[in-house]
């Protein structure tokens, strides 16, 4: 293959693609892999360069190397759909396109493009989640505004009545009305809180996480252990420290309540490249994971936990995760959740760049 095939210009273009692209020579040995390919296969280009195709792919019931040789020998483009690719512990469904590279009408290599179908499904689900969440928030905020004014009048009338009543027994009833009005007022204020736009400044996300960890560790029972696994290479994030603390605090508090008197919570950070959040693609994003070993979230609630007033606890308000999602959305990010008994993971994605590709 000529040097121009993998020149820096072409490499930059290929590294901006969301699909994995790999180039193999006639011996089915790897000559190039783009950034998306490294991420998909969980490998480093430097480590796998020169590897045979059969050693790179773990396709169930399918021989990738056989397809490469067929494409080279017969000058054929092949498409294999809905293959199960097992890399590490993350099986995924992919489409694979195999195209011979010609020089003077003679095949001198083969390009493999891998499209991850699960990724497109995830993006579609994210867009749907954001749209439904925003619609629910707008409806709830409208209701909160409608409730706020009469609630203030109700509290004021009860206060005036409380002053006029001479009998202490009757004053107890007005006191209950005022206390319950204050509780509802606090609930309404929490519904409206995320509307405040973030005041963004460069910040260290690990300082935010440490503040959250300290707050929850003080509140949690002594049997709850909070550990952290931080990636020190994560650069500064453009964000509102108070809002991010509030958002992550809501999630970690949920985890602490889930594990009860004794359990384990992990705070983990990593850098992810070429991350699509909703309809936007980000070259780099910070991924913050809050992992607990509690009983997990019921499957019927898992798709609704970020909606307002949805909760799995009898004493919960159903606002904590909804507010967290709203605050992270205002930072251009997203919160996702996966859960099985013993392993619930809340993943927070925050862009590391202010401009999107």
Polypeptide structure, described:
This protein has helices at 8-15, 35-41, 45-48, 53-56, 64-74, 117-164, 168-192, 205-219, 241-259, 299-302, 320-329; strands at 20-24, 30-33, 78-87, 90-103, 106-116, 201-203, 223-229, 237-239, 262-277, 280-292, 334-340, 343-351. The chain has 357 residues and is of the alpha+beta class. The model is unreliable at 1-6 (pLDDT under 50). Strands 2-1-5-4-3 form a five-stranded antiparallel β-sheet. The protein has a five-stranded mixed β-sheet with strand order 7-9-10-12-11, with helices on both faces. Helix 8 crosses helix 9 (241-259) and helix 9 (241-259) runs antiparallel to helix 11 (320-329). A hairpin with a 2-residue loop joins strand 9 (262-277) and strand 10. The protein has eleven helices and twelve strands. The protein folds into two domains: 3-119, Beta-Lactamase, CATH 3.30.450.20; 198-357, Histidine kinase-like ATPase, C-terminal domain (Heat Shock Protein 90, 2-Layer Sandwich), CATH 3.30.565.10. Helix content is 43%, strand content 29%.
Give a brief rundown of this model.
This protein is of the alpha+beta class. Helix content is 43%, strand content 29%. The strands form 3 sheets. Strands 2-1-5-4-3 form a 5-stranded antiparallel sheet. A 5-stranded mixed sheet has the order 7-9-10-12-11, sandwiched between helices. Strands 6-8 form a two-stranded antiparallel sheet.
């Amino acid at each position: 293959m000529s040097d121009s095939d993998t020149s820096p210009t072409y490499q930059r273009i290929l590294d901006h693609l969301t699909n994995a692209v790999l180039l193999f020579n006639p011996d089915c040995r790897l000559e190039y892999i783009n950034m998306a390919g490294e991420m998909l296969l969980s490998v480093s280009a430097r480590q796998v360069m020169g590897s045979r195709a059969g050693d790179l792919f773990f396709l169930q019931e399918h021989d990738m190397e056989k397809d490469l040789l067929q494409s080279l020998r017969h000058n054929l483009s092949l498409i294999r759909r809905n293959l199960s690719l097992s890399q590490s512990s993350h099986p995924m469904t992919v489409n694979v396109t195999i195209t011979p590279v010609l020089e003077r009408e003679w095949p001198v290599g083969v390009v493999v493009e891998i499209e991850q179908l699960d990724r497109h499904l995830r993006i579609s689900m994210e867009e749907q989640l954001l749209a439904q969440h925003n619609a629910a928030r707008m409806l709830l905020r409208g209701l909160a505004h409608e409730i706020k004014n009469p609630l203030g009048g109700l509290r004021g009338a009860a206060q005036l009545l409380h002053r006029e009543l001479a009998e202490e027994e009757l004053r107890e009833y007005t006191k209950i009305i005022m206390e319950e009005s204050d509780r509802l007022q606090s609930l309404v204020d929490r519904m409206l809180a995320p509307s405040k736009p973030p005041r963004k400044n460069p910040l260290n996300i690990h300082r935010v996480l440490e503040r959250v960890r300290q707050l929850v560790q003080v509140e949690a029972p002594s049997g709850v252990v909070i550990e952290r696994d931080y990636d020190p290479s994560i650069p500064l994030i453009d964000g509102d420290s108070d809002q991010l603390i509030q958002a992550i605090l809501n999630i970690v508090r949920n985890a602490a309540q889930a594990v009860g008197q004794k359990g384990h919570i992990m705070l983990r950070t990593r850098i992810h490249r070429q991350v699509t959040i909703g309809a936007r693609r980000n070259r780099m994003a910070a991924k913050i994971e809050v992992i607990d070993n509690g009983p997990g979230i019921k499957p019927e609630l898992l798709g609704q936990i970020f909606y307002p007033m949805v909760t799995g606890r009898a004493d919960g308000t159903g606002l904590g995760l909804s507010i967290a999602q709203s605050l992270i959305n205002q930072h251009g990010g997203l919160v996702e959740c996966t859960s099985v008994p013993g392993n619930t993971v809340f993943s927070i994605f925050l862009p590391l760049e202010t401009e999107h590709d």
